[in-house]
Design goal:
single chain, alpha+beta, Immunoglobulin-like, Aminopeptidase, 2 domains, five-stranded antiparallel beta sheet, 8 helices, 17 strands, Carboxypeptidase family protein, Cytosolic_carboxypeptidase, carboxypeptidase, hydrolase, Pepdidase_M14_N
């Protein structure tokens, strides 16, 4: 039996170039109507008893090729546990190997979070006491944009994730956050629900997620460059979320993402917005300091450069929300690589640790919400 490659499923992305013996050459498919690509997710079968070498031959042209060095591919035989496998990046080709002791193995850029799991999560959490669900709108592929609201407090908090659909770690974080917020035995969650009303969008880009995109929606649009002027034709997801924010107001916002290159968790803020004040900025910095003290899964040393005064990009959500509402807004970035300050040699940065970080973020917010 010959080796079979398939990516015709929710969030799948790969194109077979050729098979020669135990070597499989592949290409990542570009996002629809876009030049972005980097996310891959496929299954291989028919190779039991063999060690197969996979080569992604167009990795050098991907959106963030500078992120490949030091990266390790995730592999699973049961679609539950995702381990890292030996990976090399040389001369624009990403190469990884796997010994097939099973009939089927699955490979991905990061542990996938399917739209079916998304609907399971939304349905499960919506049944919990004190939770309400609403559909903020529909996507271009006519998928629902789900929002779960928890809490009765005065402070309006918005948490939203996966504007970039290939950053699946963002929805693993959301699963952890929603489980904590609905845990009746969690005292920090109880305090937060009493002091804040939390509006949570677990997946802001369902179309890109299902299509297997890295960074864009069904129209090939990067949603995190649409917050200054979203439209129903190109970016209905952002339009729906921003309109809902306009209705409620926003004191605190966290936009959850993944980063290709930096092997650590970090925050990006809103330096450079026109209305910047040191008082607003200090609240953002204080949240980061408290989060660092709360967990070894977060650090302050590595991160993005700060925008110069007056030079913030207001098409990005964190900047737009901070400017629009005076909110303490931030982008949380998690790695596709491992978290080098606290590494895991087997799984790297993993779904379980995404959820642990979500718990720490909410514990920190519970102790911080009075200062907003």
């Amino acid at each position: 039996m010959s080796i079979q490659i398939c990516a015709a499923f929710d969030s799948g992305n790969i194109r077979l170039v050729g098979i020669e013996g135990d070597r499989v050459d592949l290409e990542i498919v570009k996002d629809h109507q876009s030049d972005f690509y980097q996310w891959f997710h496929f299954r291989a079968s028919g190779a039991k008893g063999k060690t197969v070498t996979f080569r992604i031959v167009n990795a050098g042209g991907s959106a963030y090729a500078f992120g490949w060095p030091g990266y390790r591919t995730r592999v699973s035989i049961d679609r539950q546990l995702w381990r890292m496998t030996d990976t090399d990046y040389t001369d624009g080709v990403l190469t990884f190997t796997h010994r097939f002791d099973s009939d089927i193995a699955w490979f991905a850029y990061f542990a996938p979070y399917s739209m079916e799991r998304h609907h399971d999560l939304v349905s499960r959490i919506a049944l919990m006491p004190g939770v309400s669900h609403r559909e903020l709108g529909r996507t271009l592929d006519d998928q629902p944009l789900d929002c779960l609201t928890i809490g009765t407090g005065e402070k309006q908090v918005w948490l939203y994730a996966r504007q970039h659909p290939g950053e699946s770690m963002a929805e693993w974080w959301m699963e952890g956050a929603l489980e904590k917020l609905t845990d009746p035995a969690d005292t920090a969650a109880k305090a937060l629900r009493e002091k804040a009303t939390l509006h949570i969008v677990p997946n802001a880009n369902p179309d890109g997620s299902r299509r297997g995109h890295l960074r864009t929606n069904a129209a090939g649009v990067n949603l995190n460059r649409e917050w200054h002027a979203p439209t129903a034709e190109k970016s209905p997801e952002v339009l729906a979320i921003r309109n809902a924010m306009d209705e409620t107001g926003c004191a605190f916002a966290m936009d959850v993402h993944g980063d290709e290159a930096i092997p650590a968790n970090f925050l990006a803020g809103f330096e450079g917005i026109p209305s910047w004040t040191d008082a607003q900025g200090e609240k953002y910095y204080e949240f980061g300091r408290r989060l660092t003290a709360a967990t070894p899964l977060f650090q302050l040393e590595q991160g993005y450069d700060k925008a110069a005064p007056g030079k913030a990009n207001l098409s990005m959500s964190t900047n737009q929300v901070a400017e629009r509402f005076g909110a303490v807004a931030m982008t949380l970035e998690m790695p596709f690589k491992d978290h080098d300050p606290s590494p895991d040699a087997e799984q790297g940065w993993s779904p379980d640790r995404c959820k642990q970080l979500a718990h720490a973020c909410l514990d920190t917010l519970a102790g911080f919400v009075d200062d907003l």
